[in-house]
Design a protein that fits this description.
The protein has 202 residues and is mainly α. Helices cover 62% and strands 9% of the residues. It has helices at 31-53, 90-155, 161-196; strands at 59-67, 72-80. It has a two-stranded antiparallel sheet. The longest helix has 66 residues, at 90-155. The chain is rod-shaped and about 135 Å long. The two termini are 15 Å apart.
């Protein structure tokens, strides 16, 4: 970061505003997937190279030769044609093809793993959101009403202090569960945004 914490403030008022962010952008090419695709292209190029090695190369040479004794000039030409091998580099081609199939399989594995990670992250975002909303909108209001009623009953002599204490503990536990669920939701959102490259343009 390179900055200093002086004057740094972290706003907390939006911590419980869950699910309000924009939907993630489409997933860009992942770095690992790009590497796997580059390996697959390289393997395909290796196949062509091995096939080319299996074909004999015809070499033609030509030039001018000066004869010092007679001051004559001669044209010299040469032709070279290697003997054709019986296998035409077949084994090397088959090995390159096997490497290409493995690279293609690796690319499919990387793509599948990235897609699975993204789906798990999206599921975690949705799951933590539903949990936090249920605690915030249903559990906590009910416990707050219970605490108010128990406190009112205690002041009238209908409940003991232990009853009030238990109602307060239940409300505090629910609020702690809400904070944990909200934290899980924010972390899951960050993981989803990382996998989709949502903030990559920034």
């Amino acid at each position: 970061w390179g900055g200093t914490p002086e004057g740094l403030t972290v706003p907390a008022d939006g911590f419980l505003k869950l699910g309000a962010d924009a939907p993630p952008a489409a997933a860009p090419p992942d770095a690992d997937l790009a590497v796997a695709e580059a390996r697959a292209r390289r393997a395909q190029a290796a196949i062509e190279a091995e096939r080319a090695r299996g074909k004999p190369d015809l070499t033609v040479r030509g030039g001018v030769r000066y004869l010092a004794d007679s001051n004559d000039v001669a044209l010299v030409a040469g032709l070279s044609l290697p003997l054709t091998r019986a296998d035409t580099n077949r084994l090397a081609v088959e090995r390159a093809e096997a490497e290409a199939r493995r690279a293609e399989a690796d690319r499919g594995v990387v793509r599948t793993l990235r897609l699975r990670e993204l789906r798990l992250a999206e599921e975690k975002v949705s799951e933590s959101l539903h949990e936090a909303e249920a605690i915030r909108d249903k559990v906590i209001p009910g416990l707050e009403r219970t605490l108010a009623q128990v406190t009112d009953g205690y002041q009238r002599g209908g409940f003991t202090y232990n009853d009030v204490h238990q109602a307060q503990d239940a409300l505090a536990d629910a609020r702690a569960r809400l904070l944990r669920a909200a934290t899980d939701h924010h972390f899951a959102t960050v993981e989803r945004d990382r996998l989709t490259g949502r903030f990559q343009p920034l």
